[in-house]
Structure formats: structure tokens, C-alpha cells
Amino acid sequence: MFKVNIIGTGSTGNAVVIDDKLLIDCGLTFDKLGDAVMGIEHIFITHRHGDHIKVPTLSKIYKDRPWVLREGLHCNSDVAEFIKLKNNSRFKFEVPVKNIFTEHGFHFDIELGGKKYHIETFKLYHDVPNQGFVITNEDGETLLFATDTNSMISAPHRKYDYLVVEGNYDEDKVVEASLSDDELTASRAQRNLRHLSVQSFENFVRAHSKENSVIYQLHESDTFGVSSEFGVNNN
Fold it and tell me: How much is the pTM?
């Protein structure tokens, strides 16, 4: 059984904690992460956008618990380069080569609280390099995590026990807004096409869930979003 704690999701900042030990994305301030950060053993960063990675937060974690970043920070090469470019006198850190995803479909194992987990990455489609994760625990239960993508075509075609997936915008709302005479409204609608629509989220969930799967809808747009009928936690 997985424990999923969605601390933040959306343009204001993303951070999800799995089983109290794994932090996926670090797009909030250290204070907003709260007490949850003290139990973190591994950190996965999906991509370099500021609502998914805040270097000052990583710097604070590194100051208080340096081994978490040295041994447990995992990301793609684009994020690793982004972190390197943000180095300064207060934060000098480079992601260990062994913890950088060099290709999609990258497999590795980690331990969380003394329990073993198998991790698999897969390609997501955004405007910067991005990937999702499939996490399998010791009991063989699987959790799929994906956010900030306009397609799930590369997700492994399986049935999952937990689906933590983006459902950002309603397609009808975005089409209507994209035809607006107001350039700002039309532009904002076009930008949402970088994300996964609620309709695509629902189609994916139908195809990849079991009878008792637990489903979470991530990154719902404040302007163009709609809460799906699926999901125990619509944000």
C-alpha cells in the first residue's frame, strides 16, 4: 500500500511525498514543505521549471541533510545542468553522475525506510526534457506518476494500483478561449496545450487502472480546469 501526500500541485508549486520518504519535485519553499522534509531519503525532479524545482529549497535541504542530495537526488541531465548553473557561494553541489537519467526507460532500485523499491522512468512531452516514474514496492504494487506532459503515449502499457497523473484543462474550455479576441486569453489557452487535458487523463485512467486502483488528479488549471469524476484527491 502506497501513502501519497500531495503537498502542492499546480503553477504555484509542486511537491508530492510517497511513503513519507520520497519527494517527487521540489517546487515549494522549505517552509511550505514543512515537517515532511525531515523524513525524506530520496528526491526525484521531473524537469527544470520553477514550479517543480526551487534551488534555494534544495540548498536548505543540503545544509541540514547533505547526504539526501549526495546519495538520493535523481534527475535528468537537463535538470542536473540547471542545478550546476545555479551554484553559488552558499550552494555548491553537482548531481552525482550515477543519479542522472541518461535515457528514458532508465531502471534503478532505491531503499526507503529500509524497504526496497524499483524505479522505472519513461518519457513525457513538455517544452523541456521531462519524465514520469513507475514505482514498484516490495509487495509488487505499482504507482505511476506523471505531470506536465501533453501525451502519455510513452507510459508503460500496464494496469497500475495507483495513478498520480496530471489532468490540467478541459478541452472545450481551452478551444473556446483560444478563439477569444483577447490575445492574452488566447495565449494562455495555447500554453495549456503543453499539459494533459482532463479528457486525456480520464482516457488514460480507464485504460490503465484496476478495479480498485487509487487515482489522483494533478495540476488542475485554475482557469481552464475541471475536477474529474475520477480521483480521490482533485487539486
Answer: 0.94
